[in-house]
Specification:
With about 300 residues, this protein is mostly helical. The protein has ten helices and no strands. This is Solute carrier family 25 member 20.
Amino acid sequence: MSKQPQPISPLKNFFAGGFGGVCLVFAGHPLDTIKVRLQTQPKPKPGESLLYAGTIDCFKKTLAKEGIKGLYKGMAAPIIGVTPMFAVCFFGFGLGKKLQQRTPDDILTYPQLFAAGMLSGVFTTAIMAPGERIKCLLQIQASTGEVKYAGPMDCVKQLYRESGIRGVYKGTALTLMRAFAAVCLYKISEHWDLYSCLRSHNELSIPSVLFAGGMAGICNWAVAIPPDVLKSRFQTAPEGKYPNGFRDVLRELIREEGVASLYKGFNAVMLRAFPANAACFLGFELAMKFLNWLAPNL
């Protein structure tokens, strides 16, 4: 799979990014479910043990209680949202790069890539925030034993009926914080890994794409876990529990469980990060190759 320098096409980035996002969800959703359940499990009362002792324990209990379907709870929401979300993410990043290029051959600096990543993060948050809210609520309800939502659309309807549009978009600020931290590092890592592979091999092979995507995913989540933990807690909390937003969540977690609580689900996140993002990159590159073949001048 050769990688020839071509002018950046935000439109191609849009469609290829959407396909890459679908690949990411299919590859990574089971471990995402485990991550959310670990991040949102309540602190045990005196004399009681944690609901899940860790990643493996959560995986075993989910399989035993709900079967393989339990690992894919809430997947409809990200599948519906991930195509436009990743499409907009790659579109925004492509647009951000193109706006900073004087000629199509210009190689951007890392600060320029960071700026393009920030633009991409802003673009994606409008779609990502409600999708994350719905996904998290559906992922945790099975473990609590209370089935409140019949599915994604029912969840949206109930949230809107109870709290209006603000209820659907609860946690947007935290989603934006996570996006700024993660997308910028993700894109810089992607750029460095891909060009390292190109310098080494003069071509972009499938193993190179998988490695670059996996490493970008790990770099992404290394900085994104704390805001992700706060986001998951805040988005799944009952209305009114945290009147001051994520600051209340942060204070409560630090007070009751210490700084380490900001890295809940770390093992599940890192186990998911490499294969899920490797699949995303491979899907993106294959889709981009097809689009370049289909419409080389687009």
